[in-house]
Amino acid sequence: MEPLTAGAAFTDNTGDAVTMETVVSMTASLKKMSSIQEEIFKFVLSGDLEALKQLLAGVEESEESREQNLFGQKDEVGRNALMTASMLGRSDLVRELVAHGAPVNDQTVRGFSALHLTACWGRVDTARTLLELGADLKAETFKGETPVDLSRIYAKTDCIDCLILADAKQDLMSYVNHIKDMINKSDRELTKKEKNICTSNLSAKSDWIQNVKNQTVSDFTAQRRDLEDALQPILSKLSAHSAEMPVKQAGQA
């Protein structure tokens, strides 16, 4: 599939991804919004970062901002200001909106998030920004499509690579946190030596995630496998203990 041009349209009939002409025409729906919400959308569409900064800095204490959700207003097809900024690839505006309270993982009625729309349009820098701000890689549309699925559908190669790498990193981080929780909950079942082994390995993986540059998907996969192998005897011990707990409790009843 050819990269989308200003006049090209998506063909999946979702109502969430549209032509650039339609993006411009979204200004017609601004009259339905409050004055502040209208200004936010206007600056997002024009890409005026400085004007957006001044607006958000000035409205935080205003009566209007306290009475309504500044970022909850949506255009005629269900996209909020953050989704629109993401779709247009305006990373600085995305960061500013989230910093002032725009929810990064909001979804349209059909399940499209800001990251989904970014993936559709192949906005790699904006995808990285959203991921840094906590965007959910696993969020699904009404068809069960994740952001990486949509980047594949629309042949956005750079975005595919970015999202797959982010998923591999997230998987390793989640596994490290899972093991930490498991160890904390089973602290009494481990010897001092076993605790030290766990602490050392988990600390090493956390340091690797934070400090090593230019990691690949294979690197993240190898690091997880290495951690699993290093802690396998301890994890097996904890799993066996966990399986015995209901039996013991039943015998005590």
From TrEMBL:
**ANK repeat locations:** 77-109, 110-142
Classification via Pfam families: Ank_2 (PF12796)
Q: Which domain of life is it from?
A: Eukaryota
Sorted alphabetically, which keywords does the UniProt record give? ANK repeat
Parts of the chain that traverse the membrane: none
Return the PANTHER family for the record.
Answer: ANKYRIN REPEAT DOMAIN-CONTAINING PROTEIN 60, USHER SYNDROME TYPE-1G PROTEIN-LIKE PROTEIN
Q: What is this protein called?
A: Ankyrin repeat domain-containing protein 45
Q: Which organism is it from?
A: Stegastes partitus (bicolor damselfish)
UniProt lists the gene as ankrd45
